[in-house]
Amino acid sequence: MIRASCLLLLVFQVSLGLAHEPEGMLAGVLFAPSEGRPKRDVTVQGLTEAEKANILDRHNMHRGDVSPSASNMVVLQWNDEIAKDAQDWADQCIFAHNPSEDRKTDQWDWVGQNMAMGYGHSLNIYIDMWNDEKKHYNHATHKCDRGAVCGHYTQLAWAYTEFIGCGWTDCIKEGYDIFVCHYGPGGNYASVRPYVEGTSCSRCPAGYRGGCADNLCQVG
């Protein structure tokens, strides 16, 4: 679904600045409203069921298309709990990461987070921008090009992340919309590559040995 049209093409992104982030993949916040602001008025909040399905499909498409190929990439599934948390944070209209402690759930101590900001874009554009960071990432050396950002991509392509949940809010007062995705369990651990290179589905983890579809290990 394409949101209200606008000629603004520049989309700002922010990458995790936590200990989990691989060295050389950190990115500063390009635009961050001040901390502690009250919840702002919004014109539109939330995602339709069709948009949720599209977000999931888009992520899985990119996960199945990594290069070099991944031997242990599992298929993502939607999780309503972390989706609610992502939506709650998007509704704050603050373009900055919330504390990792606030993203903890009963199931995961570490939940990853990708964010994007823009106006008038389809959600696919944001996801594709995260994936496009792969051109700056060298899987063999586990390095990101100097001055580039790779952390959104490495989280998107984190093989052992099993669940995703996202939120979207149009922040009327700020004049932009915010798209937030949470990933459980989170990835981007220092010195660990996002996946193990090899023939697709040749090293599927327990719980994901239900076959191989679109180069992804299926539940089973």
UniProtKB/TrEMBL annotation:
Signal peptide annotation: 1-19
A Pfam match: CAP
Domain SCP: 50-191
GO cellular component, one term: extracellular space
InterPro entries: Allrgn_V5/Tpx1_CS, CAP_dom, CAP_sf, CRISP-related
Keywords: Signal
Source species, domain of life: Eukaryota
Record-given protein name: SCP domain-containing protein
Organism: Strongylocentrotus purpuratus
